[in-house]
Amino acid sequence: MINFFKKKVNNYPDYWLEYEKCFNKKPIEDLSLVRFVVLDTETTGFDYLNDRILCIGALSLVDKNIALNQSLELFLKQEHYNAETAKIHGILKNGGASCISESAALEELLGFLKNAVIVAHHAIFDITMINRALERNGLPRLKNKVLDTSHLYKKTLLNSNVFKKKEHYSLDELAEKFDISKKDRHTALGDAYITAIAFLKIKSRLKGKGLLRLKDLLKMG
């Protein structure tokens, strides 16, 4: 007799199960103790369905400290390639970087992320590209909370009839506003570093407005 109420068993790999376990811990609300992972992706293009991730760069951040010794930079083997976007990020199809498979990259990324709060600029793009990669490898979507520096930056600006806020602010605009070097712009790890510095400056401004808790940031970002 078939038991239609039998719980479905998902044969997910051990690294996914270890990643899931991280979210059983009670969330931390004190911003000085929360671990953030600032990440960026370089891709073959901007089509969620057909384009692929070429590189992932990520940095760990706690309080005011960017742990440069805890960075992640992954180059992925991909059959799909776009020579036009290569002019921007500089990743060549047969370049010198040591590349790993998409599935291996996801394993390393999840092991690095754990239950950290993800920070990214225009985060919906990076998160969607990562979720599409997870889907291709038979895995669920990311479970991490996400903050977008583009949205958070707008919250630091004064409401004024004279000065109209833009719908979107580029990473270049934030770098110029906060006087951040753009030396490694358009590399995944370089953009993650610029985003991390911008996030620290944004967080400092919001703290001055009395927004001290993680839940405050999540409502805005």
Secondary structure layout:
Layout: H1 14-21, E1 35-43, E2 53-62, E3 65-76, H2 83-89, E4 99-100, H3 102-113, E5 117-120, H4 123-136, E6 146-148, H5 149-155, H6 171-177, H7 188-208, H8 214-220
Parallel strand pairs: 1-5, 3-4, 5-6
Antiparallel strand pairs: 1-2, 2-3
Helix pairs in contact: 1-3, 5-7
Descriptive report:
There is one protein chain. This protein is an alpha/beta fold. It has helices at residues 14-21, 83-89, 102-113, 123-136, 149-155, 171-177, 188-208, 214-220, and strands spanning 35-43, 53-62, 65-76, 99-100, 117-120, 146-148. The chain has a 6-stranded mixed beta sheet, sandwiched between helices. A hairpin with a 2-residue loop joins strand 2 and strand 3 (65-76). Helix 5 runs parallel beside helix 7 (188-208). The protein is globular and about 55 Å long.
Brief write-up:
The protein has 221 residues and is of the alpha/beta class. The protein has helices at 14-21, 83-89, 102-113, 123-136, 149-155, 171-177, 188-208, 214-220, and strands at 35-43, 53-62, 65-76, 99-100, 117-120, 146-148. It has eight helices and six strands; from the N terminus they run H-E-E-E-H-E-H-E-H-E-H-H-H-H.
The coarse silhouette is: globular
Could you tell me how far the N terminus lies from the C terminus, measured between alpha carbons in angstroms?
Answer: 51 Å
The proportion of residues forming helix, as a percent range, comes to 25-40%
CATH level 1 class label: Alpha Beta
Number of helices: 8
Instruction: Please outline the major beta sheet.
Output: 6 strands, mixed
- State Rg: 19 Å
Instruction: Return the domain count.
Output: 1
Strand content: 15-25%
CATH homologous superfamily descriptor: Ribonuclease H-like superfamily/Ribonuclease H
Total beta strands: 6
What name does CATH use for the topology?
A: Nucleotidyltransferase, domain 5
